[in-house]
Design brief:
The protein is of the alpha/beta class and 225 residues long. It has a single domain, classed as Uracil-DNA Glycosylase, subunit E, CATH 3.40.470. Helix content is 36%, strand content 12%. A hairpin with an 8-residue loop joins β4 and β5. α3 packs across α8. The longest helix is centred in the C-terminal third of the chain and has 19 residues. The structure holds uracil (URA) and iron/sulfur cluster (SF4). Iron/sulfur cluster binds next to α4. The site of uracil has 12 residues, from α3.
Length: 225
């Protein structure tokens, strides 16, 4: 595991907040430099009683403008895949490993191009994710793509090798004041990793890649039944 960067979101995370309080505090996070060029913090969103948390990488261009996770093209792929796998998005909680949009502007271009967050940014932002997971205590965490999976399992995790397999959720060291509130009633948490829905959009063999995403999500859905 890489060293935790000197500056992180930790000092911005309020101690006794509920999800709404976390979301509110995250608006003014300066835990890494990504807040400088993004439009706004895109915090997690969804059912506070969710049994399943969907974890993406970071907001994209449209999420950055609208302030909500997975509402752009990748979100549309995700929505369809969830329907096909029998997972109800309205009863899930959707969030990202990194809460600000990281992008480059190619010369003369207007379009903002997604840039993958680095390890220091993932670790800087992780106190928000830890606080979300400590409050939600989901039975199932679905990691969408390598960044999400590495945020949970560490940098050596390989989605290609371990996708679609229920794995025990490692402890991120969630803050004790949040952790454990509902643990007596909850089964041991499981993680299923899969590809990022945007991989479907980039693929030449879209049908095949999409079918793989749905197959992994069905494995995840079975964990809940
Ligand atoms: N991609 C992600 O990983 N998350 C989003 O919210 C949108 C696109
Ligand atoms: Fe804070 Fe995360 Fe945004 Fe960095 S990416 S400023 S740690 S919310």
């Amino acid at each position: 595991m890489a060293r935790i960067p000197a500056r992180t979101a930790a000092e911005f995370v309020p101690e006794d907040a509920d999800l709404a309080g976390l979301k509110d505090a995250a608006r003014s996070c300066e835990g890494c430099d990504l807040y400088l060029s993004a439009t706004q913090t895109v915090f997690g969103d969804g059912d506070p009683d969710a049994r399943v948390v969907l974890l993406g990488e970071q907001p994209g261009d449209q999420e950055d403008r609208r302030g909500q996770p997975f509402v752009g093209p990748a979100g549309r792929v995700l929505d369809q895949a969830l329907v096909d796998a029998g997972i109800d998005r309205s009863r899930a909680y959707v969030t990202n490993a990194v809460k600000h949009f990281k992008f480059t502007r190619p010369e003369r271009g207007k379009r903002r191009l997604h840039k993958t967050p680095n390890r220091a940014e993932i670790l800087a932002c992780r106190p928000w994710l830890e606080a979300e997971l400590a409050l939600l205590e989901p039975e199932l965490l679905i990691c969408l793509g390598a960044t999400a999976a590495k945020a949970i399992f560490g940098p050596a995790f390989k989605v290609t090798e371990q996708r679609g397999i229920p794995l025990p959720r490692p402890n991120l060291g969630e803050r004790s004041e949040h952790a454990g509130k509902r643990s007596e009633h909850r089964p041991a948490p499981v993680v299923v990793a899969t590809i990022h829905p945007s991989a479907v959009l980039r693929a030449e063999n879209q049908d095949e890649v999409y079918a793989g995403l749905v197959a992994d999500l069905r494995v995840a859905a079975d964990v809940l039944t």
